[in-house]
RNA sequence: GUGGGCGUAGCUCAACGGCAGAGCACCUGACUGUGGCUCAGGUGGUUGUGGGUUCGAGUCCCAUCGCCCACCCCA
């Protein structure tokens, strides 16, 4: 019986892992610069956490969660989203401490599981690099979160990222807007697509997202959330724009940006890149001022962001961005003949003990094959041990870049090769 | 979840219903103790899987799995 990986998952092979490490390392470095600390939460949570925070009527909760029951009869769900677990931990572990206005800044790199139909750039297990800034209502923090994302993209060499922003209001103004939206569409709803007729009842904000020509025409004349914001939300949105502009961050206002998670309030934003196909969102997030309280914590605001690592890698590939060059390093021990084998094997052990990357050919093939392998594997030196060398107590060290060779006494080798790496 | 396209060597791809091939990669040798360049030779396949039609199926039909594209949704 042959087995396949589950649909929509991928193996990250040795050849690709360096690209992942590069992206992860870059993200950690940016987070460090911005003062965010890492948090790692379990890969599964109580199902209720996602249901109540993300929202029962969202696609994520209603049809995409990997939910199972454990032997104790508890309903658990594989991490469907990054924010809720971080907020849960924030509340449960009281990360804020006594200072109720302290800003807590967290980041994570974690797998996310959604049982959606796979296509290019969409997987059932994908990975998000995310941040959460919990504790401040200031729009300057929203702008910082956006700035961090753009800094990250830039550090990866990704040009051409578009930033779309919107405000989805708050519990004060959003319900009024929903009523307004319903009212403006009411007369035309029977001419709209089937999805929209359903959305009209269940989640009218999603009407704004519809791409059907007839639906769009109806929505063109509909009021926008931005026109219906309450004073506080309007002020916050203006503050966001002001701070983005202070940083020279270009943005487009797109009143159709809604985000598929119910906890968002005020700011909603998304990063897109034209190098991708239909799945062109490479990151997104927004403010969630009611979520912490809803998760059993104090009534404090928060804002966060999630970036899809797979999508970022796809953009880098589409833009033809080269992989990081791996510098040559280490020593490959080339043994010739039986008398060199055990001394070579011992040398291998000693070099590793001295911190030098080293390998040997267990197949004991020809010197030619060993040299070819050493070259292909990116070794900086070939340490050649044959009858001559053994008799004289030395090794021939060949620099694989220059081709220059020198003879080094065996006992001095580890010291000699230590710290050797390509400039 | 709906609709369409595609699954052949490690990779990229050929093969009218009639002997499963090429390039790259890999291995060996030319170079008897030295990688890259060149040349010669070689290994490598249950044609995704299971059925069916046929004298004969990589090719046609059905099913199934996976990937890709679009919708939807999202990262």
Q: Fraction of residues in helices?
A: 25-40%
Overall residue-averaged pLDDT value: 91
| Full CATH superfamily name of the largest domain | Bira Bifunctional Protein, Domain 2
**Uncertain parts:** none
Notable characteristics:
BirA Bifunctional Protein, domain 2; Rossmann fold; 8-stranded mixed sheet; RNA-binding; 423 residues; alpha+beta; 16 helices; 2 domains
What can you see in these coordinates?
The protein has 16 helices and 16 strands. The protein has 423 residues and is of the alpha+beta class. The protein folds into 2 domains: 17-173 and 229-318, 2-Layer Sandwich (BirA Bifunctional Protein, domain 2); 331-417, Anticodon-binding domain (Rossmann fold, 3-Layer(aba) Sandwich), CATH 3.40.50. An 8-stranded mixed sheet has the order 1-5-6-11-10-9-7-8, sandwiched between helices. Strands 13-12-14-15-16 form a 5-stranded mixed sheet, with helices on both faces. α1 (17-34) packs antiparallel against α5 (139-155) and α5 (139-155) runs parallel beside α10 (231-246). The protein is elongated and about 95 Å long. The mean pLDDT is 91. The chain binds one RNA strand of 75 nucleotides through α3, β6, β10, β11 and α12.
Give a topology summary.
Blueprint: H1 17-34, E1 37-38, E2 44-46, H2 47-54, H3 59-63, E3 67-69, E4 75-78, H4 83-92, E5 104-113, E6 125-134, H5 139-155, E7 161-167, H6 174-186, H7 194-202, H8 213-220, H9 225-228, H10 231-246, E8 252-253, E9 265-273, E10 281-287, H11 291-294, E11 302-308, H12 309-318, E12 331-335, H13 338-353, E13 358-360, H14 367-376, E14 381-385, H15 387-392, E15 394-399, E16 405-409, H16 413-417
Parallel strand pairs: 1-5, 7-8, 12-13, 12-14
Antiparallel strand pairs: 2-4, 3-4, 5-6, 6-11, 7-9, 9-10, 10-11, 14-15, 15-16
Helix pairs in contact: 1-5, 5-10
The protein binds one RNA strand of 75 nucleotides through helix 3, strand 6, strand 10, strand 11 and helix 12.
């Amino acid at each position: 019986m042959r087995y396949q990986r589950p649909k929509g998952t991928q193996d990250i092979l040795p050849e690709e892992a360096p690209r992942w490490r590069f992206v992860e390392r870059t993200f950690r470095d940016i987070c460090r610069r911005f003062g965010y600390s890492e948090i790692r939460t379990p890969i599964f949570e109580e199902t209720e956490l996602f249901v109540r925070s993300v929202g029962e009527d969202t696609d994520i909760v209603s049809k995409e969660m990997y939910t199972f029951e454990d032997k104790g009869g508890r309903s658990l769900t594989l991490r469907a989203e990054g924010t809720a677990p971080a907020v849960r931990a924030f509340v449960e572990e009281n990360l804020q401490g006594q200072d109720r206005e302290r800003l807590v800044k967290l980041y994570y790199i974690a797998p996310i599981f959604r049982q959606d139909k796979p296509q290019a750039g969409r997987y059932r297990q994908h990975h998000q690099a995310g941040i959460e800034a919990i504790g401040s209502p200031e729009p300057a923090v929203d702008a910082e979160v956006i700035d961090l994302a753009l800094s990250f993209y830039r550090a990866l060499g990704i040009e051409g990222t578009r930033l779309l922003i919107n405000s989805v209001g708050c519990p004060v103004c959003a319900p009024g807007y929903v009523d307004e939206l319903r009212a403006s569409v009411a007369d035309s709803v029977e001419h709209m697509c089937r999805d929209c007729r359903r959305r009209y009842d269940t989640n009218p904000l999603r009407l704004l997202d519809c791409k059907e020509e007839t639906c769009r025409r109806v929505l063109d004349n509909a009021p926008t959330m931005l026109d219906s914001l309450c004073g506080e939300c309007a002020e916050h949105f203006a503050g966001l724009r002001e701070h983005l502009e202070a940083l020279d961050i270009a943005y487009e206002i797109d009143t159709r940006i809604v985000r598929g998670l119910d906890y968002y309030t005020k700011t909603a934003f998304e990063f897109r890149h034209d190098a991708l196909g239909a799945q062109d969102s490479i990151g997104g997030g927004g403010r969630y001022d009611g979520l912490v309280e809803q998760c059993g914590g104090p009534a404090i605001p928060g804002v966060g962001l999630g970036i899809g690592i797979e999508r970022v890698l796809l953009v880098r590939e589409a833009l033809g961005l080269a992989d990081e060059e791996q510098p040559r390093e280490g020593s490959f021990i080339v043994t010739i003949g039986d008398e060199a084998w055990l001394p070579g094997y011992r040398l291998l052990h000693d070099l590793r003990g001295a911190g030098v990357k080293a390998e040997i050919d267990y197949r004991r093939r020809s010197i030619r094959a060993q040299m070819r392998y050493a070259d292909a594997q990116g070794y900086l030196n070939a340490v050649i041990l044959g009858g001559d060398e053994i008799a004289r107590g030395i090794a021939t060290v060949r620099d694989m870049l220059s081709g220059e060779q020198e003879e080094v006494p065996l006992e001095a080798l580890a010291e000699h090769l230590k710290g050797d790496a390509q400039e």
